[in-house]
Amino acid sequence: MASENVIPFLSTVAIRPDVLERLKVRPKSEVVTAAAEFGYPFTEDEFNSLIWRLEEQLAERRQETFAPRFRLWETMWGVYYLEYLVTDLIPGLESIGLLPRSR
User: Fold this and answer.
1) Percent share of the chain, pLDDT over 70
2) How far is residue 40's CA from residue 10's CA, in Å, rounded to a whole number?
3) pLDDT (tens digit per residue) in 13-49
4) Which of 40, 49, 71, 77 is the most exposed place for a label (fewest CB within 10 A)?
5) What is the model's pTM?
6) Quick check: 85 and 54 in contact, CB under 8 A?
């Protein structure tokens, strides 16, 4: 299942500031292409489905409402979405045990 490649790809980007800097301004389609080039192929639909499901689980574990006022989304102001994923979402999921620690 290609969606299994999303987290390893994001974890790779998290430890490669050069890759994050290059990709953070690119459209999602180009990020998906880059992921495949790194050996982590997945589709945009697989990415969206997994990330939304993980955000919902994180909100539930934090006893927050997964809605437009989801507290974690407030961290996105002033950063690109890819930055948010690798610097906020993934560590948040790791901190509550939804993902194994990758770093």
Assistant:
1) 84
2) 10
3) 999 999 999 999 998 899 999 999 999 999 999 998 9
4) 77
5) 0.78
6) no
Name the amino acid, one letter, at 72.
L
Rounded Cα gap, residues 36 and 32, in angstroms: 6
Task: Give residue for tokens 């690119």.
Answer: 26
Q: How far apart are CA 26 and CA 16, in angstroms?
A: 16
- Angle formed by the axes of helices 44-61 and 28-37, nearest 10°: 100
Exposure on the CB side of residue 93, measured as CA atoms within 13 A: 22
**Rounded-to-10 torsion of CA 53, 90, 84, 34:** -90
Rounded CA-CA distance 103/94 in Å is: 10
Q: Choose among 58, 46, 43: nearest CA to 88.
A: 58
